[in-house]
Amino acid sequence: MSIFSRILDGSIPCHRVYEDDLTLAFLDINPLAPGHTLVIPKEAQATVMDLSEKSAAGIGRVLPRITRAACAAAGVQECNIIQNNGAGAGQEVMHVHFHVIPKSSEFGLRKQWTPRPLADGEAEEILRIMQASVEQE
Ligand code: 5GP
C-alpha cells in the first residue's frame, strides 16, 4: 500500500483541493512552487500504463480546472504538468499521480532534457511498433 492509498483512506491527512468519485487533488507536501498539486486516481495503480480508461478520463476531466486553480494560487498563468512512471523515470510514490506545477522565473520546474532530431527511417520504425501496439488493444 502506497502513502497515497493511506491519504485516500483518510489515515494520513492532506491539504485537499478537490475530490470526486474517481479522483483526489491535494497539495504536494514538498512543493516546487506555490499551488504545486498532485492529482491522483482513486484506483490504486502504480503507473499510467496500468490505469483504466475510466480513471484516466476522470483525471483528464478535472486537470484543466485544477491547473487553473494552482496557477491562481501562485499568481501565474504558466505551469508544467508532469507524470513519472517507474523508479528509473523518477517516480517515488508508486500510485499514479500528475504533478501540476505553476511556473515563474522564481519557482517551478526547470526543463533539463536533451532532444535530438529523428534519424532517417527512425520515425517509420517507431510507428510500426506503436501502431501495432495501439491497434492490438
Ligand atoms: P514522484 O517523485 O513519485 O513523481 O512524486 C511524489 C511526490 O509526492 C513528491 O513531490 C512528494 O513531495 C510527494 N509526497 C510524498 N509523500 C507525500 C505525502 O505524504 N503527502 C503529500 N501531500 N505529498 C507527498
What is bound: which ligands? guanosine-5'-monophosphate
The arrangement of helices and strands along the chain is HEEEHEEH
The overall strand count is 5
Strand content: 15-25%
What is the molecular shape? globular
What does the largest sheet look like?
5 strands, antiparallel
What is the CATH first-level class name? Alpha Beta
N-C termini distance: 28 Å
| Radius of gyration (Å) | 17 Å
Q: SS-based structural class? A: alpha+beta
- The whole-number mean of residue pLDDT values reads 97
CATH H-level name... which superfamily? HIT-like
Structure, explained:
The chain is an alpha+beta fold and 137 residues long. The protein has one domain (3-109): HIT-like (HIT family, subunit A). The chain is 31% helix and 17% strand. It contains three helices and five strands; from the N terminus they run H-E-E-E-H-E-E-H. It has helices at residues 3-8, 53-74, 122-136; strands at residues 16-19, 23-27, 37-41, 79-82, 98-102. It has a five-stranded antiparallel beta sheet with strand order 1-2-3-5-4, covered by helices on one side. A hairpin with a 3-residue loop joins strand 1 and strand 2 (23-27). The longest helix has 22 residues, at 53-74. It is globular and about 50 Å long. The model has no long low-confidence stretch (mean pLDDT 97). Bound molecules: guanosine-5'-monophosphate. The site of guanosine-5'-monophosphate has 14 residues, from strand 2.
List the helices and strands and how they pair.
Blueprint: H1 3-8, E1 16-19, E2 23-27, E3 37-41, H2 53-74, E4 79-82, E5 98-102, H3 122-136
Antiparallel strand pairs: 1-2, 2-3, 3-5, 4-5
The protein binds guanosine-5'-monophosphate.
